[in-house]
Amino acid sequence: MPKSFYFCKTLERLTLSDKILVDVPCQVSLPSLRELDLFCVVYKDEDSHVKLLSSCPVLKHLKVTRNRRVEDNVRTFRVEVPSLLRLDYKAGMMFREDSDMSDPFLVTDTPNLLSLHIFDTVGYSLSVWYMPHLVTVVTDELFPSEKFMRPLSSVKYLALSPFDTMVPWCDAVNNYSRLVECMIHLSEYDLLESLLVLLSKCSKLKVFLVDSDIPRWNHDPALWNQPSSIPRCLSSHLEIFEWDGYVGREDEKKIIRYILENSKYLKTAGISPNSTFSGEEKQKMEELESMHRTPTSVLLSSARMSFRY
């Protein structure tokens, strides 16, 4: 990139992609830049992206995509932008011979951030500073640390795709006191048991969406023990409950039955079968309609759930 480019006063949106070398000069100023998309670029050194971001005093939306097959010369990606409102970060497994798995992979200092979307960060840790205004968090295949989890207690909208455990999401935060909508993608049997534990931490939850991708075959049913007390959100707040990818397993049926029977303010429940269901099996799903004891719209649909975030 020409050096003069880094002093453009009128530039508001910038996309750099596909191995463009980000070689930021010592002096740089992009005073009008509000949206920045760094898609699989290569940085001259560890500090190049830091200098670039520090030159954008009004930056609102940052999107970063890193290529797992290409060395981009950055071990720890630092985002220190006080003005930032939304961060989208997708990394994948970054293979490096000198990689230290204990090093933070993403470090953020964004006190005004409202929306955080993190994808494909399997195997690496994240370090975040206080984010008191955070509203929306969407994650995919993330191993969250306790330090990462602390700022999430104030979020209102949460979408999770746990890699193999939901324990950190249940243990690190005592109460998601502002959470009103939660979507969870399930891919492992062991995640079923944690669903109600998570619900017990969400006292004001109104919308609960489950997108299940658990296979029907070659696994024994997971053990599920009914909780000793009903989660508060079920007895006082939950209005919409949807389960997509229903396969008819006994433990799965018990959890759905428990949620339907104990949701006193439920207005709409949607149960969608797995794509492998036969016509006869779909007819058997009508038994789910009798699970709820109060007038509720129960939708037995073969359509996929839309992602709400």
From TrEMBL:
Residues 232-302 form the FBD domain. SMART domains: FBD. InterPro entries: FBD (IPR006566), FBL13/AtMIF1-like (IPR050232), LRR_dom_sf (IPR032675), LRR_FXL15/At3g58940/PEG3-like (IPR055411). This is FBD domain. It comes from Arabidopsis suecica.
